[in-house]
Amino acid sequence: MKFTVNRAAFIKSLTDVQRAISTKTTIPILTGVKLKLEAKGLTLTGSDADVSIETFIAADDNNAELQIEEPGQIVLTARIFSEIVKKLPEKTLTFKVTENYQTEITSGSASFTIRGLDANNYPRLPEIDAKERLTLKGDLLKQLIGQTVIAVSTQESRPILTGVHLVIKNGELLAVATDSHRLSQRKITLPEAKEANYDIIIPGRSLSELAKMIPEDTETVSLRISENQVLFDLGNTTFYSRLLEGNYPDTERLIPKTAETTIEFNATDFLSAIERASLLSHEGQNNVVKLVLDTPGKKATIYSNSPEVGNVEEELKFQNLTGNNIEISFNPDYMKDALRSFGQTTVTVAFTLPLRPFTLVPSEDHEHFVQLITPVRTF
């Protein structure tokens, strides 16, 4: 096996597949990256058995400057191989496998020899037998992931909540994540998928890695879903993830349908105020911020008190306030995550009772995106 390639293009592909490689895997060969060289190009593969990423460098890709001399395949320890490639001095590198899986990597005056593993022992990637292919806009998928993964659970005690629940039916995709303290729900229309009917749970970690890999200029991402796997096609890169097994909780009933008090904020201004208040809340034991809404007086005030450090009080700017007076306490980190997911827009926050969950929605689009936060009892 022997080839020469542009180092920058190779590093990009190597970085993508490394997202799937874990040093904690119980299968030693999965700490490596698989390289397979054929006449049509070079395929790099990384996997931790849950997530698998495969990327292809075509022989006719001018940017990659791939010169194929002798086809073959090898598995190399990803961490050390990646470090070597990144430190090489020239803009191209030459890669050659000799007998006993000895691998020579040369660039300019630098030459490394590392030992590889037999690629025939590398596990095969999952077979996706689904014929139906769904298409999503790249930027929309990236946004949907960013808006929902913030609410997935990090607690392995309820594995099902570590994923994002996707329901595709009637030409609509519904994505929901909750860790039982907060919830994020986003809907997007898929007019061309009116006949599709899927109900799956994708691990939050998988989606986070996928979002990092979607380039800004990606027009569309296609996905295919099988019984226990989902495959995302990003052009020259394919991303496989296992699906979580089990039934996701019925989250629709958690979202209040009515409100006793509503207030409209500029999301960016409100986020800045929460960040200021959390400077002191983080110093205390409870990490709680209190919001007080005085409807007759048309006042909204935020408080945070840390007995060890001090307290903060700030009167907030808002666009509209209706309903009953209310005092409500919450975790400011949940609120910051929620507000960041809205970007530059006006947000309507709707409350029922001081100890009942409250919602945040974009003021101009109540139907397609909602964040829900459970208050904190402080008495």
What distance lies between the first and last C-alpha atoms, to the nearest angstrom? 69 Å
Task: Give me the CATH superfamily of the largest domain.
Answer: DNA Polymerase III, subunit A, domain 2
Task: Flag low-confidence runs.
Answer: none
Question: What's the number of helices?
Answer: 6
Given this structure, which CATH class of the largest domain is correct? Alpha Beta
How much is the radius of gyration in Å? 25 Å
Mean pLDDT: 94
CATH-assigned fold name of the largest domain: DNA Polymerase III, Chain A, domain 2
Strand arrangement, major sheet: 14-11-12-13-26-25-24-18-22
Q: Could you give a short account of the major beta sheet? A: 9 strands, antiparallel
Label the structural class: alpha+beta
CATH structural architecture of the largest domain: Roll
Total domain modules: 3
Q: Please count the beta strands (DSSP E, at least 2 residues each).
A: 26
Give the % helix: 10-25%
Which geometry do the CA atoms define? elongated
| β-sheet strand percentage | 35-45%
Description of the structure:
There is one protein chain. The protein is elongated. The chain has three domains: 2-121, DNA Polymerase III, Chain A, domain 2; 134-252, DNA Polymerase III, Chain A, domain 2; 255-373, Proliferating Cell Nuclear Antigen. Helix 1 packs antiparallel against helix 2 (78-87). It starts with a strand and ends in a 6-residue tail after the last strand. The protein has 379 residues and is of the alpha+beta class. It has six helices and 26 strands. It has helices at residues 7-18, 78-87, 138-148, 204-213, 267-281, 332-340; strands at 2-6, 32-38, 41-47, 51-58, 67-70, 72-77, 92-97, 102-107, 110-115, 134-137, 163-169, 172-178, 182-189, 198-203, 220-225, 229-233, 237-242, 261-266, 289-294, 299-306, 310-315, 320-323, 326-330, 346-351, 358-362, 369-373. It is 18% helix and 41% strand. The strands form four sheets. It has a nine-stranded antiparallel sheet with strand order 14-11-12-13-26-25-24-18-22. Strands 6-2-3-4-17-16-15-10 form an eight-stranded antiparallel sheet. Strands 5-1-7-8-9 form a five-stranded antiparallel sheet.
